[in-house]
Amino acid sequence: MLQAVWVSSPGSWALREPACHRDGKQASWKCGFVRTIIRHPCPRHDTKGLRKTRMLKKIQICLCFFFVSGILYEISLLSGCFFSYVPMSKHFLTPEQILNLGKSIIFLETTERLEPPPLVSCSVESAARIYRDRPIILFMKGLTNDTALDMNSSYAAFSLLSSMKNVFIFPLQMETVFQETPLLQWYNQVVPEQEKNWVHVSSDASRLALIWKYGGIYMDTDVISIRPIPEESFLAAQKSRFSSNGIFGFPAHHKFIWDCMENFVLKYNGNIWGNQGPFLMTRMLKTICNLTDFKGTEDHSCQNISFLNPQRFYPIPYPAWGRYYEVWDKSPNFNHSYALHLWNFMNHNRKAVVAGSNTLAEKLYKAYCPTTYEDLIQNAEVRDFTHSEDVV
């Protein structure tokens, strides 16, 4: 009878069969079992197979490493720790990679200028300081993919903003922005050279498309942030029953923004200033909400959209915009405000912040955009003074 047993050598079996031999000492026969080892080929004893197996394992390890690295990278984007890697790595990121996070603060420059004035720089810097864990994006129409501008740029404001870890500056490519929105058909038909208010109209359209696609907060470039906005879906009341479009926030693909884009096209009239901006927001809000006057500093809410009190962003109304550039006996504390709109559209005389003037605007610059104040205002005056002495 054969008996099969496993032996210690890997991949081997032993067959035990009966056998007899003569015991010389006792002149007798003894019977027992002897083992016949039968070895079966095993891949691990195949040199080529072993190498192939090891190589496959290495490939699997590498793939796992890249997969885990990708996950960690995505996680890092969602947290403030990502910004510890910039500005070195942020120049390799695309607008979509940043915008897809859905938490961006978006600014637009729809003129061709490449040197942001101090107020624009202050708006972006103040947002970067208040929202340190969120990407701050400035889209510039005058910037192209071929424009070589970075921290070493000759434009002082551009260098200043590029050096901020959570600030990203990208070209504004409207045709790309309007893709997959109702605005694309309008954009393909409109003739910018014949538009009276193209800079404003194109900005009104771009902010709607960007917020609908990616979500986040849009701010005008004359808004100084002073504390975080706690709302996700909100409009800013400029006054009772009237909405601004200078600052608003919504999650991606919100129906209200889509409806606004459709109405933008349906009721388009580029000759009326604000028809595609604050008047659009107001008439669309009135279709879903019964707007009432504000009493005190309370906010209103309708269909999960917060209609924020004028004190939140417009504590100084537009007829009194010049007060930002005046000296106050006692500066207001703006305790009920999240940000301040400085009404640059009204500033036809181009009033500016002057170092040492002690105006309200200068105090705001010092408090909320100190780098802009120092680099673009104080240092600029020193440079101008030195230059004038050299000329003399």
Automatic annotation (TrEMBL):
Localization in the cell? Golgi apparatus membrane
Q: Where is the Alpha 1,4-glycosyltransferase domain?
A: 250-374
For this UniProt entry, what's an example GO CC term?
Answer: Golgi membrane
* The keyword Transmembrane helix is annotated on this UniProt entry: yes
Q: Which InterPro entries match?
A: A1-4-GlycosylTfrase_dom, Glycosyltransf_32, GlycoTrfase_DXD_sugar-bd_CS, Nucleotide-diphossugar_trans
For this UniProt record, the keywords arranged alphabetically read as follows:
Glycosyltransferase, Golgi apparatus, Membrane, Transferase, Transmembrane, Transmembrane helix
Any single biological process term in GO: protein O-linked glycosylation
Q: What broad class describes the main subcellular location of this protein?
A: Golgi
> What membrane topology does the UniProt entry give?
Single-pass type II membrane protein
Q: Where are the transmembrane segments?
A: 61-86
Offer an example of a GO molecular function term for this protein.
acetylglucosaminyltransferase activity
Entry's family note: Belongs to the glycosyltransferase 32 family.
Protein name per its UniProtKB record = A4GCT acetylglucosaminyltransferase
Organism of this sequence: Chionis minor (Black-faced sheathbill)
Q: What is the lineage of its organism?
A: Eukaryota, Metazoa, Chordata, Craniata, Vertebrata
